[in-house]
Design a protein that fits this description.
The chain is of the alpha/beta class. The chain is built from 13 helices and 14 strands. A seven-stranded mixed sheet has the order 7-6-8-9-10-13-14, covered by helices on one side. It has a five-stranded parallel sheet with strand order 2-1-3-4-5, with helices on both faces. Helix 1 packs parallel to helix 5 and helix 6 packs across helix 7.
Length: 386
C-alpha cells in the first residue's frame, strides 16, 4: 500500500505541476489539428533504456516493414528514438520535448514504473497514446487515464500464473527472498498473499539490493527444507545471490520475477543460473507463421535471435499501425477509443485486447528455464500457440 499511495501522490502532484507550468491543452489542440489534415509523416517516439535492450531494434524493424508497404494511410511512419532514464526528473525534459511536437501520435517505452507512472500524466494531458511494454505494477492503470495502455498482464495476473506453475512442478515449500526496494518488496508481498493458501512459506527474508554478500541469509535458508526459492530483485543482485547460493550447496530451483528475464542475469550468473525459472511474454520458438516470419526478418537484419524486449518493440509499433489503419486517422481521442474497444489483435507474442482501464486481457506468460546457460522454454506448461 505504501507504493500505491506514493505513486498516486506522485501522479497527482505531477498533474498539478504540469497543469500550472506548461500549456499541454494547447499542445493537444495542435496535435488534433495536425491529425485532421491527414497529411505528412506519422511520428511515434520510443525510449531506449540504459541497458540498451533490443526493444528499439524490434520497433525499428516494424517501422521499416511498414514503410516498405507504403507506410500508414499512404504516409511515411517515422520513429524518434529517445534515451530513457530510471529517474523521472532526468527524463522529464525529453518527455516535454516529445509532447510539444504535434506530429507525435504515440510514445512507447519507459522500463521503470517510477518514470512511467508520472510520465503517463503528461501524455494524458497532451493527448498522446502511451503504450507501456514493461511496467506490470497495477497502479499504472488505476487512475482512469484514457491514453495509457499496458502491453503486459499486470503483477496480479502474473503471480497467479506463477502459483499455477508451482503446483504443476510439484513445489510445496517455498523460500521467499526479495530486495527491499518498493517494486521488489511489493511484488514479493503480492506473491506471498497469492500462494499462501496453496504452499507452505518456510522462509521469508528481505535484503538490500546493493548488498554484495548474501551468505548469512543463505546459511539461515539452508536450515529449512525448501523446494524452491522465489527471488524478487534486480538482475545483477539476483545473479550475485544465486551464485553464492550454488557455492554454498543450495541447488534447489530459483523462481524469479520478470527482472531476471534478461541477458544481464544470464551472463552474470553463468552456470550458477541454471535451474532458474522466469516468466516471459514471448516464445521465440513458437511455430506460428507470423512469429517465424518475424524471427527470420529480425535475424536477417541484426544477425541474432529476438528476445522478449525485441518482440515487445515490434508488437508495440504494429499494434499502433493496426489501429491507425482501422481509424483511418491519427486523431488522438479516436485512436484511444479504438485501442480500448476494438476486438483482439494478434501480435507475435499473443493476443492484444484491452479493458476500459487500459489493461491487457487474456494474454498469458510463457515460462522458461536456464539450462546450460541458455533459456529453454518449459513447453509443457506454456500457453497454447495462437
Amino acid at each position: 500500500m505504501k507504493l500505491l499511495r506514493s505513486s498516486f501522490l506522485l501522479i497527482i502532484s505531477c498533474c498539478l505541476l504540469i497543469a500550472c507550468n506548461v500549456d499541454y491543452e494547447t499542445m493537444a489542440s495542435q496535435r488534433l489539428k495536425y491529425a485532421q489534415k491527414n497529411q505528412g509523416e506519422i511520428v511515434i517516439a520510443a525510449f531506449q533504456d540504459s541497458a540498451g535492450s533490443p526493444y528499439i531494434k524490434g520497433a525499428m524493424l516494424a517501422v521499416e516493414e511498414i514503410n516498405q508497404q507504403k507506410g500508414l494511410l499512404g504516409r511515411p511512419l517515422k520513429l524518434l528514438v529517445e534515451q530513457d532514464s530510471p529517474d523521472f526528473v532526468a527524463v522529464k525534459p525529453t518527455i516535454r520535448r516529445i509532447v510539444s511536437n504535434p506530429k507525435v501520435s504515440a510514445v512507447m517505452g519507459h522500463r521503470s514504473a517510477v518514470v512511467a507512472m508520472p510520465a503517463s500524466a503528461i501524455y494524458e494531458k497532451a493527448q498522446i497514446l502511451f503504450f507501456s511494454p514493461f511496467v506490470t505494477e497495477e497502479e499504472l492503470t488505476s487512475h482512469g487515464f484514457g491514453y495509457t495502455f499496458r502491453l503486459l498482464a499486470d503483477d496480479k495476473q502474473l503471480v497467479k500464473q506463477m502459483c499455477s506453475l508451482g503446483k504443476i512442478l510439484g513445489f510445496k515449500k517455498i523460500a521467499v527472498l526479495y530486495a527491499r526496494a518498493d517494486e521488489h518488496r511489493k511484488f514479493a508481498l503480492l506473491f506471498k498473499e497469492t500462494v499462501r493458501n496453496d504452499f507452505n512459506l518456510v522462509f521469508d527474508q528481505a535484503f538490500f539490493g546493493e548488498a554484495l554478500d548474501f551468505r548469512s541469509i543463505l546459511s539461515d535458508l539452508k536450515q529449512y527444507d525448501a523446494d524452491v526459492i522465489f527471488l524478487s530483485g534486480g538482475a545483477k543482485t539476483a545473479s550475485r545471490l544465486t551464485k553464492q547460493a550454488r557455492e554454498m550447496g543450495i541447488t534447489i530451483p530459483v523462481m524469479g520475477s520478470r527482472k531476471l528475464d534478461s541477458e544481464i542475469f544470464k551472463t552474470s550468473a553463468g552456470v550458477a543460473g541454471n535451474n532458474t525459472i522466469v516468466p516471459t511474454p514471448y516464445n521465440v520458438q513458437a511455430k506460428n507463421p507470423i512469429n517465424q516470419l518475424f524471427v527470420a526478418h529480425y535475424r536477417n537484419k541484426y544477425n541474432q535471435l529476438p528476445d522478449a524486449d525485441a518482440a515487445q518493440g515490434y508488437d508495440s509499433v504494429m499494434l499502433f499501425a493496426d489501429k491507425v489503419e482501422t481509424a483511418q486517422s491519427t486523431q488522438p481521442a479516436l485512436l484511444a477509443s479504438i485501442v480500448r474497444f476494438s476486438p483482439s489483435w494478434t501480435g507475435i507474442s499473443g493476443m492484444y485486447r484491452f479493458n476500459k482501464e487500459g489493461n491487457i486481457q487474456g494474454k498469458p506468460y510463457f515460462f522458461q528455464v536456464l539450462d546450460n546457460e541458455n533459456w529453454q522454454m518449459l513447453s509443457a506448461i506454456s500457453p497454447k500457440e495462437f
